[in-house]
Write a structure and sequence with these properties.
This protein is of the alpha/beta class and about 240 residues long. The protein contains 11 helices and 12 strands. A hairpin with a 2-residue loop joins strand 2 and strand 3.
Length: about 240
């Protein structure tokens, strides 16, 4: 299982939100690039970078910072937030990003996923962000009519090979992941599932590994010191 340290960018700074709320922001660093380097030095195999401003506004707002992160580290970077077109995907992939993440756009325009699968096979993931079991969009401000599992299956049919599954109620709350929901998702699709939201301890990582997720995104727990990255990587192995 791969551990993905999370770098959430707002106004060019490395921050964390609680349950995706923009009125509950904690700034952890003014330099996301240096934060990325520190994660790489600690042994990270992959970085998860989110453009929070892009997610809210509908188009990437921190692409320059993200491209600097990709250039500064020797490990792959996946990024999401405001990616709505194949043109935007192409631009970000051209800036050194390894994998781009479709969220709201995949809900509003499922055929975008099919086009992405044809153009960028293996270089994109679909974010399945669940609020009370239903997929949330627009920076988690709205809830769609699709259940998380139903939507994930549809994305698999359209050619997605990676799902990033977030339980919004757990995100940034340090209360542990929703293991039951994660296990249901793993059993419901035949593609990779990366778990996100609530990872607080090394036991959480072991539990996620045991239910078969391909990766785990760890955010706030790294910044608060609840989890040491090197130990997390060890637990995942």
């Amino acid at each position: 299982m791969v551990i993905y340290p999370a770098i959430d960018i707002k106004d060019g700074k490395c921050v964390r939100l609680a349950q995706g709320r923009f009125d509950d922001v904690t700034v952890y660093s003014d330099d996301p690039v240096e934060m990325a380097r520190s994660f790489e030095m600690a042994g990270a195999q992959y970085l998860h970078v989110v453009d929070l401003d892009g997610a809210r506004l509908g188009s990437p707002q921190n692409a320059d910072v993200i491209s600097r992160i990709a250039a500064a580290v020797g490990i792959p970077v996946q990024t999401g937030g405001g990616i709505r077109t194949t043109e935007t995907m192409e631009i970000l992939l051209g800036k050194g990003v390894k994998r781009v993440i479709l969220g709201t756009s995949a809900v509003n325009d499922p055929m975008l996923v099919k086009r992405a699968a044809e153009m960028f096979s293996g270089r994109f993931a679909v974010a399945v962000d669940a609020k009370d079991g239903f997929v949330a969009t627009e920076g988690w401000a709205r809830t769609s009519r699709f259940s998380a599992v139903e939507f994930a299956r549809k994305m698999e049919e359209l050619g997605a090979t990676v799902i990033i599954y977030t339980d919004i109620s757990r995100d940034g709350m340090l209360k542990g992941p929703n293991l039951k929901a994660m296990e249901e998702m793993v059993k419901s699709v035949g593609i990779e599932v990366i778990a996100s939201g609530g990872v607080t301890s090394l036991q959480d990582i072991r539990d996620l590994k045991n239910i078969g997720v391909a990766g785990s995104i760890v955010g706030k727990a790294l910044y608060t010191g609840n989890i040491d990255l090197k130990e997390a990587i060890g637990a995942a192995k």
